[in-house]
Amino acid sequence: MIKLILIEVLFLFMIISCKNDYTASPLVFDKPVELKYGEIILNSDYKISIVLDSVINESRCPLDAECIWAGNAAVRFIYSSPEKKVQFVLNTISSFRTDSLIDGYRIKLNSLTPYPKLGIHIKQTDYKAEIEVKKIN
């Protein structure tokens, strides 16, 4: 019992101390949750967390432009559990991967805001991703 408590405390300490600018919110399965850049969602019962790490590609057609393709944004997340840490990328367009299965959890990107506008640069800190996590097994 003491060993289990120690593992849980070490896991939470590891998550919180990995990067000082991360903030934590609860991760509830089967419900959409909005993640800001650098924010952690944490399910302490299952000892997993997900972080919005960065938007690594933003090529969505700006709202005030005419494009032949809607474009795509690729978003990098970090999944952590006591056993592993996995970086994965989800996309905003269904032609590319919009969900990922890790450790029996399906993680799906529902949306990414703000949407681009011509001539306006979006800072990493302005991005918000809506994801949904389902426990598969």
Structural features, described:
- Helix content is 12%, strand content 44%.
- It has one helix at 2-18, and strands at residues 23-26, 33-36, 39-43, 48-58, 73-80, 85-91, 99-102, 105-113, 128-135.
- A hairpin with a 4-residue loop joins β5 and β6.
- The chain has one domain: Tick-borne Encephalitis virus Glycoprotein, domain 1 (Sandwich).
- The strands form two sheets. Strands 1-3-4-5-6 form a five-stranded mixed beta sheet, with no helix packed on it. Strands 2-9-8-7 form a four-stranded antiparallel beta sheet, with no helix packed on it.
- The chain is built from one helix and nine strands, in the order αβββββββββ.
- The protein is mainly beta.
In short:
This protein has 137 residues and is mainly beta. It has one helix at residues 2-18, and strands at 23-26, 33-36, 39-43, 48-58, 73-80, 85-91, 99-102, 105-113, 128-135. It has a single domain, classed as Tick-borne Encephalitis virus Glycoprotein, domain 1 (Sandwich).
Question: Which structural traits does this protein have?
Answer:
single chain, 137 residues, mainly beta, Tick-borne Encephalitis virus Glycoprotein, domain 1, 5-stranded mixed β-sheet, 4-stranded antiparallel β-sheet, 9 strands, elongated, disordered N terminus
CATH topology, which one? Answer: Tick-borne Encephalitis virus Glycoprotein, domain 1
Rounded to the nearest angstrom, the radius of gyration is 16 Å
CATH class: Mainly Beta
Q: Kindly report the average pLDDT value.
A: 86
